[in-house]
Amino acid sequence: MSTHFPSGLGLAEKRRWYVIDATGQPVGRLATRVARILMGKNKPEWTPFLDMGDHVIVINARHAIFKGGKATQKVYRYHTLWPGGLREINVQEMFAKHPERVIEWAVQGMLPKTKLGRTMARKLKVYAEAEHPHAAQRPEPLDLSRVP
């Protein structure tokens, strides 16, 4: 008996599209489950060096929540690459200006920091409200209680 080993051929054709509603979901738990789907860790044929994951559309990002003190104390930091260019923005301002970015940054922090991780991150689409332009892909609604 030999072990089945995926070749990597035809992976793009087998990818599915999922829609996840972020309303009332904690950002961290939502991000871990989305990252597992993007990497393909929820599939039995998962291989660490192949992009086995599916596409994920997250809607209603504006209505995701932070639990505990994170709702008031969390601060995002980034650098503009200019001298003295360290910028800070708290989570309330980030939700007001760019609610999609909160989910995107949380998920990207859980993906590999390689070319493969950047490819996986491109399969994530986040929208602040319930409308999205991906109806042609026929995305399936996904209940996060089913995802390990």
Shape type: globular
Sheet/helix structural class? alpha/beta
Number of helices: 6
Number of strands: 6
Q: What is the chain-wise order of helices and strands?
A: HEHEHEEHHHEE
Helical proportion, percent range: 25-40%
State the low-pLDDT regions, or none. none
Give me the Rg, rounded.
17 Å
Strands ordered across the widest β-sheet? 5-2-1-6
Strand percentage lies at 15-25%
What is the distance, rounded to the nearest whole angstrom, between the alpha carbons of the first and last residues? 30 Å
Question: How confident is the prediction overall: mean pLDDT?
Answer: 93
**What kind of sheet is the major sheet?**
4 strands, parallel
Explain how this protein is built.
- The mean pLDDT is 93.
- The chain has a four-stranded parallel sheet with strand order 5-2-1-6, with helices on one face. Strands 3-4 form a two-stranded antiparallel sheet.
- The chain is an alpha/beta fold and 148 residues long.
- 22% of the residues are buried.
- The two termini are 30 Å apart.
- 30% of the residues lie in helices and 17% in strands.
